[in-house]
Amino acid sequence: MTKKVYNWGILAPGRIARKFATEIQQLENALVFAVGSTNDERAKEFAAEFGTKHSYNNYADLVADPEVDIIYIASPHAFHAKQTLLCLDHHKPVLCEKALGLNLTEVKKMVERARENKVFFMEAMMVPHQPSYQKAKQIIESGKLGKIKSIHSWFGFNKSPYDRSQRLMNPALGGGALLDIGLYPLFDTLYFLGEPQNITASAEFAPTGIDQSVSVRLDYPDGLSASVFASFVASSGVGTDIFCEFGTIRLRRQSALEQWIEVETLLSGVKRYTYEEKFCGLKLEASEAMRCLDEHRLESDLMPLSLSISLMKYMDLIRHQTHIIYPGEREPAIE
Predict the structure, then answer these.
(1) Does one domain contain both 121 and 136?
(2) Cβ pair 265, 258 in contact under 8 A
(3) Which tens digit of pLDDT belongs to each residue from 49-94?
(4) Residues 307, 190 contacting (CB under 8 angstroms)
(5) Which pTM value belongs to this model?
(6) In total, how many domains does the chain have?
(7) Dist CA 263 CA 240 (whole Å)
(8) I need a labelling partner for 82 at 20 to 30 A (CA). Which of 88, 139, 150, 284 fits?
(9) Angle between helix 305-322 and 183-193 (nearest 10)
(10) Boundaries of domain holding 135
């Protein structure tokens, strides 16, 4: 049976959109079909680079294009809610970059609108689709390593000096370590351990007012705990260590396309699993979204909306404890 080819509309053609478009060109059922930007020159450059059929100098025309099957939103966090609602109100399926919004109020509104309109909606959270994470999940669920006792997860880099007007350091664009990279180690903890009983968080702030480093401790029943660290000023790399009763799982990656997992036990030593680029990356998000559309699903079971809500709930709690507040926003409400 021939697969349906989905026409993708790219909303906001920045760096991550280019990575996404490059990868989905490898998929036989995906076509980089249209692009929309508030900057006409950027839209045309992207269209020329990827051979899109349509280029729009605004988002409304992109969303209204009847030939576009699904929209990938790649703008800064601060604009996700407004743009997602625009798409959903035009009954366009949406794959929206993480973080899904600035706060839980925004995310819940987006989820509610998707469900009301019966339109597919998914957060573009890369990790649960990756073979390394699925392998780790499989090992844990097999029981071979026993129960998880603790998790340590981190994501850090240092590219200073930073341009204060750009997204990472700009509070008006939803900048800061927590929403940009801290959600990855936080996601890992929620993914493997579930929701904690209690969290304690602290943050270090940059001169622009954004959080440049965040540290979090998560406490679970029976004395289990996890630690999360994210920073724009610490060259820690990316990793998650899962300490189990009878061994340790180490998840590592250099990029979306370069990832591996190590499993260490006392009896067997270290076993390393590596994966070819063709089985990794952002294209797996697109593949999952298209699978869901093929099967007439409104959300993914790999990255369900309930998980996006849980992730944002704990980011709000971290923000509340550390007083991370964005322009025009009250301190996040705690639910």
Answers:
(1) no
(2) no
(3) 999 999 999 999 999 999 999 999 999 999 999 999 999 999 999 9
(4) yes
(5) 0.95
(6) 2
(7) 12
(8) 284
(9) 120
(10) 127-281
